[in-house]
Amino acid sequence: MPRTGKWTRREWLEALAGVSVSSLALQAQVVSKADPSLLAMPGPFRGRVVAVEHPASIVKGAFQAQPIKEMMQKGMVELTGAPDAPSAWRRFFEPGDVVGIKLNPVGMPHVISCAEVVREIIQGLESAGVRRRDIVAYDRYRDQFFQAGFDKWLPEGVRMSYAAPQYDDVQQAIEGYDPDHYMDMALTLPGQDISNATARRSYAARFITREVNKLVNLTTLKDHQSAGVTLALKNLSHGLVNNVFRSHSTPTLNACGAFIPAVVSIPVIRNKTVLHIVDGIKGLYHGGPFSRPQFVWEHKTLYFATDPVALDRVCWKVIDDQRVAAGMKPVAEALPDEFSTFLRRQPEHVEIAGAMGLGEWDEKKIDVRRLRLTA
Q1: Most exposed among 44, 176, 197, 215, judged by the fewest C-beta atoms under 10 Å?
Q2: Tens digit of each residue's pLDDT (9 = 90 or more) over 149-184
Q3: Which residues span the domain enclosing 251?
């Protein structure tokens, strides 16, 4: 029978490609071993998302340490049900853990991981008994880490790590990555040989495979012109492996919908990432991932979850709401313009990740707990 009614985003893509959008992700081969963990994604609080707003968290463009401290403490307590903030942090961390914090510098200078939020995470880890020398701040590229200024405000004793010295479009160098942990997908950069394993694989950074046993995923609230949104899932997929440019190498060769969930399903990433925090004090609603000041807004909210799918679904809607308020279409319906050049964005990576068991996609099963603190 002929197709009737309105086509969904996924149906349109399936018809165009002749194959399910999710099939590439589901068929990807993952080679990785990691100890099983009760904290592995989606974690102990599947479907729970905590949003903590504080109107004084940013004043005249400056982040405010005390309100952010209150937001962090309230968010962790509400997420876990613990009696106090140190007990909440101890729900995930203990003495002897070596804990990484995945930062995000890409939207510099306007929307990046901010010093005040990172310091509160470090303080929370220390309250759980994690030694400062066992806390490792990380981003994939050394040059971006230092350009963002992360080294200038990290507390003394916190270590730094990166997988590669600088960004490049090929991204297939193995130095800094682990040959024992990878995702193999039948997708290469244009012109490369599909039989070349190096071209087909994305290897996990040694940072996540060898340097830490747990990870805090600190991401930002941003639009993304190929993935639709860059939140918890994409901060992991494009920050913890090499050979990611193949996922969106041209405005029409865009496979983020499949690539992102396939990478996050690598066991060493899935099992070690135990907490996700979205720094939404400032957000970016268009033109991402590089922030343009005309699309930045002050959202004044932090989000907490162990479930990256539920978290991304909630924050995706936040970005869409801001776009609609600015007279724009939601990310899944947006067409190219001078600031966002990809033909079709692929925020469906969030739903596909849910279908792969990484978290809760069904909005009816997502428990959003909103707290608004007073100035």
Answers
A1: 197
A2: 999 999 999 999 999 999 888 889 899 999 999 999
A3: 42-166+205-372
